C-alpha cells in the first residue's frame, strides 16, 4: 500500500502552491485545485491551511464575506527569521541559566551539606534540559527546508549537548565527593537525589 503524506509534507506542498501561483485564494478554490496540483486530499486542505496561518506562514484577510489567503516567499523568510531570533534568544537565556546552576553545583561540591538546596538545583537542571529539548524541537520545525537554519540547528544542538554533558560530569563529581568524604553509598545517593542508574554523558 502507498504510504500517506506526512503533515509536514502537506504543509510544504501547500506553501509551495502559494509561492508558485503568487496570488490570492479562497478556501473553496484551494480545496478544488490543491488536491489535483499537490496531492493533498480535499478534507485535509482546511486543517493544513490553518496550521500555516497559525505559524504566520500564510496571511488571511476577510474582504466582504470571504476570507482570502496568500503567502509570498519573502514574507515566509521574514517569519522564519523572526522565529529563529526568538529561539536563539531563548537558547541564550537557557545557557545563562545553565551557567548559573553549574556554578551553584560546583559550590555544593565544595562541601555544602544542604541536601534540600541540592535537590532544588537538580530539579532546576532537569527543567532547563526539558526546555532546551523543547526549543531544539521547535528549531528543527523551522529549519526543515532552509539550509542556513539547518546549520543553526546543528550549532545549537551541539551547544545543548555539551551543556548537558557538563551537567552530567558535575553530578558525577558531586556524587564521588559525597561517596569519598561522607562514606555515602553510591546507590543510596542516587535514590536520594532521584538520579537514574543509567545516567551517562551523551556520545
TrEMBL record:
It comes from the Eukaryota. Its main location: nucleus. Belongs to the MND1 family. Residues 14-73 form the Mnd1 HTH domain. InterPro entries: LZ3wCH (IPR040661), Mnd1 (IPR005647), Mnd1_HTH (IPR040453), WH-like_DNA-bd_sf (IPR036388). Pfam families: LZ3wCH (PF18517), Mnd1 (PF03962). Residues 77-145 form a coiled coil. Keywords: Coiled coil, DNA recombination, Meiosis, Nucleus. This is Meiotic nuclear division protein 1 homolog. It is found in: Nucleus. Residues 150-201 form the Leucine zipper with capping helix domain.
